[in-house]
Design a protein that fits this description.
Layout (H helix, E strand, L loop, with lengths): L1 E7 L5 H15 L4 E6 L10 H13 L7 E11 L2 H12 L5 E6 L7 H6 L2 E4 L7 H19 L8
Parallel strand pairs: 1-2, 1-4, 3-4, 3-5
């Protein structure tokens, strides 16, 4: 199995790109990982929120393949502790799916079209974070979960 993280827009801050890249490299020692950046919508100020969500959903849908397990990252989703997230990953790894695809939505969240395709909706926190920060938090948590599964000392309880 491999893991993908689909995000809308680019990370603009150099320090943040470097931090995310560090975790991407670490994750790659455990499992194939790829972050896919979808271009931010042009003229989004002229689009309604539902239209933005629809267009972003269409862009994400074009990247999905049969057998992918789609997980949306949304503040309204299910929260997990790091150990629980590791257990979730372990269950997905043994499910026979080809790719575990996590998606960070645009500024207004997800459209109903992509929500229908999702198998899971997870939350990193009840707090709202910038989409750029979510990339760092998610990659760190993914790395942490993989070290938990390997019984390594990165995570302490």
């Amino acid at each position: 199995m491999k893991i993908q993280l689909i995000v809308v827009g680019k990370t603009e801050e150099t320090w943040l790109r470097l931090a995310v890249r560090d975790y991407e490299t670490r994750i790659g020692h455990y499992i194939p990982f790829e972050m896919i950046e979808i271009a931010a919508l042009k003229n989004s100020a002229n689009l309604s929120q539902p239209e933005q969500k629809l267009r972003e959903s269409e862009m994400v849908s074009r990247l999905l393949h049969p057998g992918d397990i789609l997980v949306l990252l949304d503040e309204q989703g299910t929260e997990m502790r790091s150990v629980e997230f590791a257990g979730f990953l372990n269950k997905q790894f043994s499910s026979g799916g080809k790719t575990l695809v996590f998606v960070v939505g645009g500024p207004f969240g997800f459209g109903k079209e992509i929500k229908k395709k999702a198998r899971y909706v997870l939350s990193l926190s009840k707090m709202t974070f910038s989409h750029q920060m979510v990339r760092l938090f998610f990659t760190e948590q993914l790395y942490r979960a993989l070290t938990i599964l390997r019984g390594e000392s990165y995570h302490h309880e």
